[in-house]
Amino acid sequence: MKKFIAMLTLLIGFNANAGLLTIDFSADEVSVGESVLVTISATDFEESTYFGFNFNFDNSGMIYQESSLTSGLDLSIDTPMLDGLEVVTEAFGLNFNFLSDDPSIFAAGNFVLASFNLIADATGSFDFSISDLYDDWSFVDHTVAFSGADSVNVTAAVAVSEPSAAFMMMLAGFALVSSRRKAK
C-alpha cells in the first residue's frame, strides 16, 4: 500500500510540475554504533534562492554526523556571506535552509540536496519525515517520497568474543608442527 501511495504521489507531483524530494537510506536495519547514509535528492526544482524544510526524526537514538554533510548546493560555511545550504540540529531532527543573495548561487533542476550520516545510538525503530517545506520563489507544492523504507530499525550490537590467548598459542603450535613435518 505504501508503494502505491508513493507512486500516486509521484504521478500527481509530476503532473503538477512541482519539485520532488526523494529520501534514500543506505540501510533500513543497523546495529547500535553503525551509521546510515541519508541522501536527499531534488528533482525538477524551479529556480530558487530561498527554501527550507524540517527533516524529522528522534535524535535521541540517531545522531547527526555534521562532518559527513555533502551537497550539490554550496554550503553556507564555505561561502563568504553565508549564502548556501545550512543544516541545524533541532529537538525534532534537522532544519535545512537554503538562502542566497548572490544571483550566481541558486537551487534549480536536479541535484543532491544533502547527503549525510546518522549514527545509531539506541535500539528501536526510528521514523523519518519531512515537514514545513517552503519555497519563496516558485510557491509550488513540492512532493516528498521515500525511495524505500521511511524508518530505520536499530538492533543491539552483537558482541563477538576474541579468541583466547591459549587457543591462539595452540593454533600456532599446530602450524609449526605441521610445517616441520612437510619439511622432512
* Unreliably modeled segments: 1-17
Helical content class: 10-25%
| Total strand segments | 12
CATH second-level architecture: Sandwich
Q: Could you report the average pLDDT, rounded to the nearest whole number?
A: 78
Strand arrangement in the largest pleated sheet: 5-8-3-1-11
- CA radius of gyration is 24 Å
- Given helix and strand content, the structural type is alpha+beta
Number of domains: 1
CATH-assigned fold name: Immunoglobulin-like
Helix-strand pattern, N to C? HEEEEEEEEEEEEH
Largest sheet: 5 strands, mixed
Tell me the span between the first and last alpha carbons: 70 Å
What portion of residues belong to β-strands? over 45%
Quickly count the helices: 2
**CATH class designation:** Mainly Beta
**Gross geometry:** elongated
Molecular structure report:
The chain is of the alpha+beta class and 184 residues long. The protein has a single domain (2-158), classed as Immunoglobulin-like (Sandwich), CATH 2.60.40. Helices cover 18% and strands 47% of the residues. It has helices at 2-15, 165-183, and strands at 20-25, 29-31, 35-48, 50-56, 62-70, 84-90, 93-99, 107-120, 124-127, 129-135, 143-146, 151-155. Strands 5-8-3-1-11 form a 5-stranded mixed β-sheet, covered by helices on one side. A hairpin with a 2-residue loop joins strand 6 (84-90) and strand 7. The chain is elongated, with a radius of gyration of 24 Å. 22% of the residues are buried. The model is unreliable at 1-17 (pLDDT under 50).
